[in-house]
């Protein structure tokens, strides 16, 4: 299998999951400006909009969209319990979290990541809304180590998004200047995530110091 990724992008999420599961997956870096892969191909021939992540299966099948990819990966090694079993209520809870992160957090960051285009709207409307969503997440993490209590692929996705907030080492496209002062539970979760070997390995591989 191959994972096409852009350093610091949301593709960090399946990258972390791959490390957690110890899967043999080739990482293919994509240039976020030129959309060229490391071996000189036009990534848009695989992903028409140039979006990562993209997972290429052994038979050439292409799987797009991060939430689908991380669930597929988790199901390759169900004993690792990074996703509850299909058909259980807990699996639907996981999908509930992934949907929330996609629509409310991931989408909420986009105007801030491209603030040059969004202008005042991004600062006056989008940023407060995103901060409200993070305040709610902080409440959900009270008394929990991870979003669902136990660690799942949803935590990997949230980490990939949250590190966009104020990390100075990110490429300019992926900085949003969100501050998490006062969100004690979220901060503890973030530090807990950052210390996971799979997370540190992914950050090192993507040269995110």
Automatic annotation (TrEMBL):
Keyword Transferase: yes
EC number(s) per entry: 2.5.1.18
Domain of life: Bacteria
Pfam families, per the entry: GST_C, GST_N_2
GO molecular function terms attached to this record: glutathione transferase activity
Keywords attached to this entry: Transferase
Enzyme class: transferase
Domain GST C-terminal: 87-209
GST N-terminal domain sequence ranges: 1-81
Protein name: Glutathionine S-transferase protein
Protein source organism: Herbaspirillum seropedicae (strain SmR1)
